[in-house]
C-alpha cells in the first residue's frame, strides 16, 4: 500500500500526540525547524502540515512565542438537530449535564409568542448546562407546551437530554434556527464559566411535530469553544 504524503504523516504524528493527551492543551509543539530535522523533509512540507492543523483548530500560532495545542471548538450542524450528548461522546469526550431548574411556569409574553399560546398559559421550563470533559459547552433554556409532552417534568434529564425525550415522543417535523453573537447575561456567563465580556453564540430554536409547535429553546455557547456549521447541496 502506498504511503501517505509526508505532510500527512506529520499531521498524523501531531494529532496522535494531541489525542493521546501526551500534548495537552497549551503544550508548545516542536518548531518547524525541529520537525524538518525529525522527518527529513523541507520547510514547505512541515509548514503545510502545521498550517492545516491551525486551520482545522488543532493548533494556534502565537507571534514570537511559537505554536501551541489549542482547545478545539465543538461543532454542531446548523441545519439539523442532534443530541448534544451523542455529539460530545462522538468527539471522544465525556458528557454530563447539570440541571439548574425544571418546573412549570405561567408563560410571559415573549414565551407565549414563541410557542403560539395564550399569555399566562402553563408552560414547562428547563434550564440545563451541558458539559464536555467537565467544561461547560452549552446552557439550554427550553420551554415546552405541556399539551404535547405532558410527562416532560417527570424525566431524569441527567440520564437523557430534553432533545432525546422530545424527539422520541414528538417526532420532529420542522425546525427553525436563528443565530446571533451576543455578550452573555451575568447568570449565563457564570454557568458557562466565562466573563460577561466574552462573546457567545446564541441559537434560537423552535421545533414542530407535524404542524404542532412543541418547544422553543435558547442555546448559549461560549464563542471560543463552539462553532456552528451548515452545508447545502446546490
Number of strands: 10
Secondary-structure element sequence?
HHHEEEHEHEEHEHEEE
Major sheet details: 6 strands, antiparallel
Q: Which CATH top level class of the largest domain fits?
A: Alpha Beta
The CATH topology of the largest domain turns out to be Chorismate lyase
InterPro entries: Bact_HTH_transcr_reg, Chorismate_lyase_/UTRA_dom_sf, His_ut_repres, Tscrpt_reg_HTH_GntR, UTRA, WH-like_DNA-bd_sf, WH_DNA-bd_sf
Keywords: DNA-binding, Transcription, Transcription regulation
Domain HTH gntR-type: 4-72
GO molecular function, one term: DNA-binding transcription factor activity
Structural commentary:
- Helices cover 27% and strands 34% of the residues.
- The protein has 234 residues and is α+β, with helices and mostly antiparallel strands.
- The protein folds into two domains: 6-69, Orthogonal Bundle (Arc Repressor Mutant, subunit A); 74-229, Chorismate lyase (3-Layer(aba) Sandwich).
- A six-stranded antiparallel sheet has the order 4-5-6-9-8-7. It has a two-stranded antiparallel sheet with strand order 1-2.
- Helix 1 crosses helix 3 (43-55).
- It is elongated, with a radius of gyration of 22 Å.
- The relative contact order is 0.13.
- The mean pLDDT is 87.
Amino acid at each position: 500500500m502506498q504511503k501517505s504524503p509526508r505532510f500527512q504523516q506529520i499531521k498524523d504524528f501531531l494529532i496522535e500526540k494531541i489525542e493521546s493527551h501526551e500534548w495537552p492543551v497549551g503544550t508548545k509543539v516542536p518548531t518547524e525547524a525541529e520537525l524538518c530535522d525529525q522527518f527529513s523533509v523541507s520547510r514547505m512540507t512541515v509548514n503545510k502540515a502545521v498550517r492545516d492543523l491551525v486551520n482545522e483548530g488543532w493548533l494556534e500560532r502565537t507571534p514570537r512565542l511559537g505554536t501551541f495545542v489549542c482547545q478545539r471548538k465543538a461543532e454542531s450542524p446548523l441545519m439539523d438537530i442532534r443530541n448534544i450528548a451523542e455529539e460530545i461522546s462522538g468527539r471522544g469526550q465525556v458528557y454530563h449535564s447539570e440541571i439548574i431548574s425544571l418546573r412549570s411556569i405561567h408563560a410571559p409574553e415573549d414565551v407565549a409568542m414563541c410557542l403560539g399560546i395564550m399569555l399566562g398559559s402553563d408552560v414547562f421550563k428547563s434550564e440545563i448546562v451541558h458539559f464536555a470533559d467537565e467544561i461547560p459547552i452549552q446552557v439550554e433554556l427550553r420551554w415546552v407546551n405541556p399539551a404535547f409532552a405532558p410527562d416532560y417534568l417527570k424525566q431524569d434529564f441527567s440520564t437523557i437530554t430534553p432533545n432525546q425525550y422530545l424527539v422520541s415522543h414528538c417526532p420532529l417535523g420542522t425546525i427553525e434556527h436563528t443565530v446571533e453573537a451576543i455578550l452573555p447575561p451575568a447568570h449565563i456567563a457564570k454557568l458557562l464559566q466565562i466573563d460577561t465580556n466574552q462573546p457567545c453564540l446564541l441559537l434560537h430554536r423552535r421545533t414542530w411535530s407535524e404542524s404542532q409547535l412543541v418547544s422553543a429553546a435558547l442555546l448559549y455557547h461560549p464563542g471560543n469553544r463552539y462553532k456552528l456549521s451548515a452545508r447545502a447541496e446546490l
